[in-house]
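Q&A log
Question type: sequence-to-structure
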Amino acid sequence: MFESIGWLEIFTLLVVALIVIGPERLPGLIEDIRAAIFAARRAIDNAKKELNGELGAEFEEFRKPIEQVASYTRMGPRAAITKALFDGDEEFLDDFDPRKMMQDDPRRPATRPAPKPTPNPTQQQPPNNDGGDSGDGGRPGGFSWADIT
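Response status: OK
Response body:
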């Protein structure tokens, strides 16, 4: 009933009630609120029993489709599609499962080949810029600060 209310909020309400109402009348007020909550619960339960007793058979017609919709909302998308289209038979959808298709792929080798050792690449020397603003430094295809700015 009070899932969204934390202990800090309840404590704050009690402190405010203690300040506003006073310590003399607070226990009586809490008992009155408790009695009102129990009376409301009893009244709701009695109303449910009366409706189920008088109209129980007629409500069954409405209850079944509502329960079916509620069961669909609790399901995931795969289970809902399977239940609605295939009457709960998941074997049909398993044929289209990509993980299963990859496991059953005959073209795929059973074991992976060992990785080939890669030769160590030689480290390239950074371009040597003499500080001249001649553009490419006299080398064709060289680096130029003019290209950046």
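Response note: DSSP finds six helices and no strands in the chain.
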